[in-house]
Amino acid sequence: MDLDLTEDQEAIRDVFADFFTSETGPERARAAEPVGFDAAAWERLIETGAPGMGVAADLGGGGASLADLAVVAEEAGAQIAPLPLVDHQVTARLLASVGGCDDDVLSGAAIAGLGVRPVEDGIASTVPTGAVAGRLVALDGDRLIAVTGPVGDPLANHGCLPLAHREVGEATVLAEGPEAVAAYDRGLDEWRTLTASTLVGITRTALDLGVAYVKEREQFGRPVGSFQAVQHLLADLPGLLNGARLLTAKAAWAGDRASAGESGVLDVDANDVTDFGALATMALVVAGEAAATSTDRSLHVHGGYGFSEEYDIQLFFRRARALALLLGDPARECRRLADRMFPDPAAA
Amino acid sequence: MDFSLGPQTTEFRDQIRVFVAEHLTTEVVDRMHATGTFNDRDLNGALADAGLLAGAVPGYGDRDPIELYVLFNELEKAGAPYDGLAVTMLVAGVVNAVGTDFHREAVLDHLLTGRYNCCLGYSEPDHGSDVAAITTRAVREGDSWVINGQKMWTTMAHEADWVMLLTRTNPDVPKHKGLTMFLVPMDTPGIEVQSVPTMATERTNATFYDEVRVGDEWRLGEVDGGWTVMGVALAFERGVMGGTNPAVPLLRHVRNWATTAPSPDGGRMLDDPVLRERMARTAIANQVSQLLTLRAAWIAATGGLPGLEGSMAKLYATEQYQQAVGWFQQMAGAEGLLGFHADGAAADGWIDYDARHAPVTTIYGGTTEINRNNVAERHLGLPRAR
Predict the structure, then answer these.
(1) How far is CA A25 from CA A11, A34, A283, B88, B294, in A?
(2) Cα distance between residue B157 and residue B139, in whole Å
(3) Rounded to whole angstroms, how far apart are CA atoms A230 and A145?
(4) Measured between alpha carbons, how far is A185 from A258 in angstroms, rounded to an integer?
(5) CA distances from B330 to B299, B316, B341 (A)
(6) Which residue out of A13, A200, A242 would a mutagenesis test of the B interface target, given it has the greatest number of B Cβ atoms within 10 Å?
(7) Residue pair A157/A322 in contact by the 8 Å Cβ criterion
(8) Are A285 and B281 a contacting pair at CB < 8 A?
(9) Is the pTM of this model over 0.90?
């Protein structure tokens, strides 16, 4: 048992907190709207080695664990960095797992993205990085495919994310059959975990913005943060933040264990869960709700200013919802989880 | 981070699971709900005999708080009567931290056998959350103290051997500074215990203190230093010693029920997509509650004071539990209203029980509002509201 970051992870956190604060942040996110991509910041990010850091060292990557990447993703989320980093890292790892990660993807010179919904009728819909990723990896039936080609037309959207539909057209088949589905599912669970971590970062900054505002803003002759009704809206949030961060970290830990060949357990009756797939889904659901609640309450305590474009909280509010819904209704994710946790006893 | 318990703690947990499987009989659980006494001396004694109790005293010996958490979490998940034991071990921890050699010999050694109990005398009829305003008086007479007053919610007083009693020793200073804590033997003349039944099965008490005379050796901590002793107790209490995973047995009962219960739409309740979603959400919240509790235990294990993290864990876990209880009772319909062993009762009455029990969880052990105040002021640094 150890619930603290390692010294290396603390160093990674500090380095990337500095990077995302100086190279990205709410102003840059605002400037990058509506597409949601900052090409200059991506060039700087390439210099840090972050795009390939999650690929094994013997394959030319940085050898970072999923737990390490989660630390980076939280810092990116805290600054709502308009960068396709999580999607790129996850896709690079997925490509590497099937022997298809080339130097351009490793370095980040070519941006890679994941189709998080299955291809239907030759179309990958609302790909999270579809408007910026030249390399697209997706699951078409039981084939894991890679598409290289022009990026898609950006779709106007709630979170100003670089969403686009993509025609798969001529695709390279990376793997086929159960092996392909397993590799894709694993990649998608990594995407859930790191997207959850991004949402944890959003939860954190939204809370910080709300607290800072209510300490400063005065009404009736005193800071609005001295009113108990306002305090209690915010006082629920640190628990949601810590809970989402712990569950996401546990999912990343379970993912790293699974990579090392250790199997997990899913025993709901005893509340023992170390299964990566289950934890990844749980983390995304919990972090999505934490981010929605945190941004909702923080925006509310800003009063009318929270609704104006001028204030940053609305940037966090919209991204919180967008990232949480890219995979579909969280209720559906819960039912998918239920199918694993509560199987038909007759079938067992 | 490493979320595995490690070999030593896993072995400890497995010992508790074996113990629970062997000792937690239907008879024990039925007796607990029939009497309202969530304490079983035989069970506690057997725990001590099996060598599993010494780790349950916070801050005592070489056991770490992770094991303390594991013990109470396993008992809670199993639905065992652990409330009385938790209070007793909490007092044991306070005695260990601030007590004298006399207290250790006269009280702590007994508590470690599992066959003696304590109760907490903090709240009064007119002073609940504002506990520092209590008025039960202790007046010094030579080497003794004479205590007069009344306490409320002294759960387990009818079985307790000692009460950890918060008294006012100085009414002329700010309220926090005139309090003194005592350990009072419950067989001291002048103490009366009256039963206070509750809407759930658990029984609590009111206790009356009329010219109760104890020697100065029963004072715990400094004269007028009672608030400091309270702080030690609260830091131990919040989060780590059970109370944050009540929805684990609830979900187990619901699942067992849904596996066979017919749905009004045909098929079984377990096939109902809304129920399945809510069961999954409950399982997810159970993980989060566990992790927030573990975080508090981890901070204690690494030398910190986990009071705020305990507040966060309690806030989250109790509200999630209440939400889950509401969902499941609603979905069980009329059968969810039926009590233990009633013909046709959903989950043999467990849903009715949890729906009765759930409201108190955001009240006792620090209300949700007090916990929010703590987090707002001490964690977020917001100005004091009161």
Answers:
(1) 20, 15, 24, 52, 33
(2) 23
(3) 50
(4) 13
(5) 38, 21, 19
(6) A242
(7) yes
(8) yes
(9) yes
| Residue A255: closest CA among A198, A183, A184, A189 | A189
Residue among B1, B5, B251 whose CB faces A268 most closely = B251
Q: Rounded to whole angstroms, how far apart are CA atoms B48 and A124?
A: 62
Cα distance between residue A209 and residue A230, in whole Å: 14
Cα B338 to Cα A214: distance, rounded to the nearest angstrom: 47
Render the burial of B314-330: b for 16+ CB within 10 Å, e for the rest: bbbbbbbbbbbbebbbe
- Tokens in use for A25? 């942040």
B382 close to A (CB below 8 A) = yes
| Residue B175: how many other CB atoms lie within 10 Å | 17
* Mean pLDDT per 10-residue interval, chain A, length 348 residues: 96 98 98 98 98 97 98 98 98 95 97 97 97 98 95 98 95 97 98 98 98 97 97 98 98 98 95 98 98 98 97 98 97 97 72
B245 close to A (CB below 8 A):
yes
Rounded to whole angstroms, the Cα distance separating A199 from A209 reads 15
Whether omega for the bond prior to residue A34 falls within 30 degrees of 0, making it cis, is yes
Q: What span, in angstroms and rounded, lies between the C-alpha atoms of A247 and A56?
A: 25
* A323: nearest Cα among A162, A140, A92, A90: A162
The ipTM, to two decimals, is: 0.97
